[in-house]
Amino acid sequence: MVTKALVVDEDLEAIQIEDGRLKVDAEITVDSVPICENLTILPFATYSDSNVSETQTNERAVGAYILFDITGIPGAGQTVTLFVDILQLDGTFTAIYQSAALATIGLRKYLIYPGAVDDNSQLTGVTRLSLPRTWRIRLNHSAPGNFTYGIGGYYLA
């Protein structure tokens, strides 16, 4: 459960919420931190080679819920492995999460969030870390072939 608190100076006369934004005295606008913000990381398509998403910029979230939906695998024994990479200080990326080699179609659910647990075994993978500002998804195919998938998700406050 996420709890938000607002401390307001008693002298302020007008506070209102308009279009999901907090407006104070109609001159000062403070963006609220979204509890969930939709992400499209890789659109559904057929990918013939290993793939890297565009670099993602996390503005204010603490973590992310990532959905990896595989709808086509080229043949028996071929796999795809998902990595969540973060930007290091030297400008290179390093993985903070690596999935198992995935050889079947289906929806996989991953959670990156500090202290996260999967009490009901509903998730494919959990990483108990905060999501930094700059990150990406990297997919390694075991061999060339037409894999069909899409990756989306949500930022979590």
Your description of this structure?
By secondary structure, the protein is an all-beta fold. 0% of the residues lie in helices and 51% in strands. It has one domain (36-156): Jelly Rolls. The protein has no helices and 13 strands. The strands form three sheets. A five-stranded mixed beta sheet has the order 4-13-7-10-11, with no helix packed on it. Strands 5, 6, 8, 9 and 12 form a five-stranded antiparallel beta sheet that branches. Strands 1-2-3 form a three-stranded antiparallel beta sheet, with no helix packed on it. Mean pLDDT is 82; it is low at 1-17 and 22-34.
Q: How is this structure best summarized?
A:
The protein has strands spanning 15-18, 21-24, 28-31, 36-47, 51-52, 56-57, 63-72, 80-87, 93-98, 106-112, 125-127, 134-141, 147-156.
Q: What summary fits the major beta sheet?
A: 5 strands, mixed
Side-by-side strand order of the widest sheet: 4-13-7-10-11
What is the rounded distance between the termini? 11 Å
CATH architecture verdict: Sandwich
Q: Which regions have little confidence, pLDDT < 50, spanning 5+ residues?
A: 1-17, 22-34
Q: In percent terms, what proportion of residues is strand?
A: over 45%
